[in-house]
Specification:
3-stranded antiparallel beta sheet, globular, 7 helices, single chain, mainly alpha
Length: 132
């Protein structure tokens, strides 16, 4: 799943740096399912209040197309970084679908370390997700 890059943005990139806002808008339009999941997790975090360390999404994507969008968004350093800067959070990812948004102040905390640990990854496995 590649990004659908408008000609104007491609020309801009060919001649220099691209504004984060333009890049993130390209991601939003190109990867709508990934955008929906990530913006939803961030909205849940905001709804939970300032004391909440993180919010997460654990629902598997409805199809391989949506799974591909989520993988593309979170596997690309540029896309993931753009989304993190846009939303002001640190994104974390397990399996093929579990996405979490952490507040920056929580990155030294036990919950973040547990989420990104090998132990956390192993405990989040199940036979149903073997081929995801």
């Amino acid at each position: 799943m590649s990004l659908d890059v408008p000609t104007e943005l491609l020309e801009c990139a060919a001649h220099g740096e691209v504004a984060d806002a333009d890049f993130v808008d390209c991601v939003r339009l190109s990867l709508p399912y990934a955008w929906q999941v990530i913006s939803g997790v961030v909205a849940d975090l905001e709804l939970a209040g300032e004391a909440a360390e993180f919010a997460d999404h654990e629902i598997p994507p409805p199809s391989e197309t949506e799974r591909g969008q989520l993988l593309r968004a979170l596997a690309s350093d540029a896309i993931r970084g753009g989304l993190e800067r846009h939303f002001g959070v640190k994104l974390a990812f397990q399996n093929c679908h579990r996405v979490a948004a952490f507040r920056h102040w929580a990155l030294d905390g036990a919950r973040y370390r547990a989420f990104i640990s090998a132990r956390g990854q192993l405990l989040n496995q199940s036979p149903e997700l073997r081929d995801c």
